[in-house]
Amino acid sequence: MKFVDSAKIYVKAGNGGNGCMSFRREKYVPKGGPDGGDGGRGGHVFLKAHRQMSTLLDFRYRKHYEAQRGVHGQGAKKNGKMGKDIVIPVPCGTVVRNTETGNLIADLTEDGEELLVARGGKGGKGNPHFASSTHQAPRYAEPGGKGESLEIELELKLIADVGLVGFPNAGKSTLISAMSAAKPKIADYPFTTLVPNLGIVQYRNYNSFVMADIPGIIEGAAEGKGLGLQFLKHIERTQVLAVLVSADSEDIAGEYALLLKEMEKFDPQMLHKPRVLLITKMDIVPEGFSCPAFGDDVRVLQVSSITGLGLEELKDALWEKIEPSRDVSQECKTESE
């Protein structure tokens, strides 16, 4: 399935049905009063988050959504039916903005979360509503209201516990395939990964966490070079960052510093996330390899996705940083309930 993480669509709620101007006409009732029915409300337009969806691809082929208008009122005080609502499914993690103003409308992160994005027009009132003691035969009925319409921008930001960050060929795709059932494309050349990949990592005691592999970062990624700007946003939501540097790098410390610099330029808050530094490809470590010192504030792990070296220790280290945020999230959810 092709990965698409942005789209613009036009949504139009249904207009309300018109109220009816009618008078009762029956045998032996020569002066029947007004009996026009009300018009039905126009259909609303909703967005609904679905965890089964993983891309905005559908919106590349359909860009216009319009809900049904309300049915007009009829005589004999028959009210018109409401127009049918439209519910548009989107992936969890979809950010919704008003295209014209750029204002954030909502951030849909929970499965089943709904957003009323365009409200249907009110149904018009029939002429009985305008009768009074001095005006008993009103020849006026209210027209239906206009349904709201707007163009919205949808932007998908993946929701994962761990985000893998590194230069091209740092071993991100190999790592995620070794730790989960994800099967990204793997080859020995830069930019093998062209779209983000998600993998579910099974942990002890029936726990699990989601890992995201994004295309490799290059210097200047925060300004849009390479694929960085397009995909750095997908690690904004992650709880933990795993920064990967290959053991055969000529300057491990320099690469690590450069990756942090690019993330900071894109969003300074990224550097406040818990993170670990992974020295990858230890199965091909050059002779005389010596890992540079990074200080006590940086957790450094040496791993090999081919031999499995350090992978269990890596799971423990990641879970140690993920679990506190899971507990806080659960507490907040319990309090809200």
Automatic annotation (TrEMBL):
Molecular function (Gene Ontology), one example: ribosome binding
Primary role: An essential GTPase which binds GTP, GDP and possibly (p)ppGpp with moderate affinity, with high nucleotide exchange rates and a fairly low GTP hydrolysis rate. Plays a role in control of the cell cycle, stress response, ribosome biogenesis and in those bacteria that undergo differentiation, in morphogenesis control.
Enzyme's top EC category: hydrolase
Residues the record lists as binding Mg(2+): 173, 193
Gene coding for it: obg
Residue sites binding GTP per the record: 166-173, 191-195, 213-216, 280-283, 304-306
Catalytic activity, EC: 3.6.5.-
Location within or outside the cell: Cytoplasm
GO process terms (BP): ribosome biogenesis
Name by which UniProt lists this protein: GTPase Obg
Any Pfam family hit: MMR_HSR1
Domain annotation Obg: ranges: 1-159
Gene Ontology cellular component terms for the protein in this record: cytoplasm
